[in-house]
Amino acid sequence: MNFASVRIITDDVDGLAEFYEKVTGIAAERPAPVFAEIVMPSGTLAIGHSQTAQLFGADSAVAASNRTVIIELRVEDIEAEYARLKPWVGQWVQEPTTMPWGNRSMLLRDPDGNLINLFEPVSEAAIERFKDR
To answer: What are the residue ranges spanned by the domains of the chain?
Structure first.
């Protein structure tokens, strides 16, 4: 089995796709007006309009209501990413901080309130843990 994607349900596909394009530096693919994908080597971040959730059954997903999932993106240089993103990110949760498990991490929220963790492995153990991922 291979991990394929995480999908965010939103009422603003264009706005969220633009936000993630800025965060990742990757242009969104748009196979339909109600759907966008940020395709990365390790997996895809899909963004679907709330109308698409109906295709999976009533009340299967509600836009802008996530409070349990953290989208995590590994970066090469956390300090450089912080400087790049700081001027336009609307809600910072945590500035770059070294975590007990060896990652330097920063947390922010996307326009729908989803939590995003950008991190860089910095300890020897963390670097080793992520070397093949």
So the answer is: 1-65, 66-133
pTM listed for this prediction: 0.91
Fold of domain 1-65: 2,3-Dihydroxybiphenyl 1,2-Dioxygenase; domain 1 (3.10.180)
Do residues 94 and 106 lie in contact, with contact meaning Cβ atoms separated by under 8 Å? Answer: yes
Please give the chain's pLDDT, 133 residues, in tens.
Answer: 988 999 999 999 999 999 999 999 999 999 999 999 999 999 999 999 999 888 877 677 888 888 889 999 999 999 999 999 999 999 999 999 999 999 999 999 999 999 999 999 999 999 999 998 8
Assigned superfamily of 66-133: 2,3-Dihydroxybiphenyl 1,2-Dioxygenase, domain 1 (3.10.180.10)
Q: How far is CA 107 from CA 36, 43, 54, 59, 113, in A?
A: 23, 20, 31, 29, 12
